[in-house]
Design goal:
The chain is mainly beta. It contains no helices and 25 strands.
Length: about 300
């Protein structure tokens, strides 16, 4: 969701295949659609294309096409399974409705502070670096790794970097989106890369598949709390919203304070997978897997 010309819109992107006609070869285009957030009606759409915009598939499922973020009036769109021959990043101007720049064989990790963090290369030879959102020119050099590493956005200001060999001393923590430098107030050597930002409490909650969860200050990157500890168990985070962390501990549902990590006294029969001011989307264990349950929330 973003504001364009004083109008709040929700953005999405679609791959379009254009058939060849006459001597013109078939090609692919990228369609950007804006929906008015207040009326749910289509506001406008436009298409862009160039040699980097090529939608191909390969074994292993459908590639991911997503709008990674917006910087000013520039929307950054990423396509692909990961950095490789099939992937590309495109930046479009939402006012002029035109393509600003594109790069092939990369994926976009995060957008913030006027920059885009890009990942390039395959497993065994990967690098993370920053370019300016407005023109795609280099902003910072970042990280190069000959080993596998995972990356992801950690709130509006940082990129989280996690190596495969946890606990071996590699110094790849939070990187600042503005400069590519390490967050000065952060002491962890590895940060879980699956993060949810809560702008109300300026807290970022990051978790991984090994039961590690940390709460970070969104402005400084300082660690606020972490689980598990010697006296507290691991949690499975499902959602974060307005100062609350919704999670599960084994078969038990729990609520945590997002800023302190402390248990909250409230209880829920189940925890939502998605939540906002009006509704929560839950998974019903007795319903088919593709049947979410929507319930009203209290904000």
């Amino acid at each position: 969701m973003t504001k364009v010309a004083d109008r709040t819109v929700v953005l999405t992107a679609f791959p379009i295949a254009v058939e060849g006609k006459g001597t013109e070869r078939g090609h692919h285009e990228l369609e950007i659609l804006a929906v008015d957030a207040n009326t749910s009606e289509a506001a406008w759409s436009f298409r862009v294309t160039n040699e980097a915009v090529t939608f191909l598939t390969r074994p292993g499922g459908l590639p991911i096409l997503s709008i990674v973020g917006v910087s000013g009036t520039t929307a950054v769109i990423s396509y692909g399974h990961g950095p490789g021959d099939n992937s590309f990043v495109a930046a479009v101007d939402l006012v002029t409705k035109s393509l600003l720049w594109s790069k092939a064989r990369v994926t976009a990790v995060a957008v913030g502070d006027g920059n885009v963090a890009l990942r390039e290369g395959e497993m065994g030879d990967s690098k993370l670096y920053g370019v300016r959102a407005a023109d795609g020119q280099p902003a910072w050099s970042g990280v190069h790794s000959e080993d596998f590493f995972a990356v992801g956005p950690a709130g509006p200001n940082f990129v989280a970097v996690q190596t495969k060999r946890l606990g071996t001393g590699e110094d790849l923590p939070l990187l600042n989106l503005a400069t590519g430098s390490r967050a000065t107030e952060h002491s962890m050597r590895n940060v879980p890369v699956r993060c949810v930002n809560d702008p109300v409490t300026t807290t970022v909650v990051c978790s991984d598949d090994h039961g590690v969860t940390v709460g970070l200050d969104a402005k400084s990157g300082r660690q606020l709390w972490a689980l598990p500890t010697q006296t507290r168990r691991s949690i499975d985070v499902t959602a974060v919203w307005h100062g609350l962390v919704y999670a599960k501990v084994d078969d038990e549902t729990v609520l945590l304070d997002a800023r302190t990590g402390a248990d909250r006294p409230e209880s829920l029969e189940s925890v939502p997978r998605l939540v906002n001011s009006y509704i929560g989307v839950f998974t019903d264990p007795d319903a088919p897997a593709a049947s979410p349950v929507v319930r009203r929330t209290n904000g």
